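Weekly puzzle thread! Below is a chain. First person to post its structure in token form gets bragging rights.
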Amino acid sequence: MGFGPWISECAAQFIPCIGEEIYHRRYQEPDKLNDDGTEIDWPIPYWWVDIGATMQNVMLAAVDAGLGCGFVGADDVAALKTVLGLPDEFTPIGVMPVGIAVPDKRSPSLKRGWVPFEEFARWERWD
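Winning reply:
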């Protein structure tokens, strides 16, 4: 898969996965059904929101423990699933290496500076 030593040599690798069908099964249980007996509409795929929050918690816990943590997306999800032997209902989204932090390399993109707050923040309405 060619992720490099920052992943292959780290102390631990977390594999965040989504499981859309798990949500559907839970929201088809009697205490989660609409009054008419149907599953709720999913205007937003909240399984993506939950995995993002979970990943952030892992990252914060790693930093709190004095470790480094990162994320690399999976280019070949099927291969990652096969290597890990994941059941069909789970979809891995990448790899989160956790371990002793290596010296930080500053990104060249930092030279362009920060976007001024007024260019991305809005109050009450966009316009």
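Puzzle host: Confirmed. Bonus trivia for everyone else. The two ends are 45 Å apart (CA to CA).
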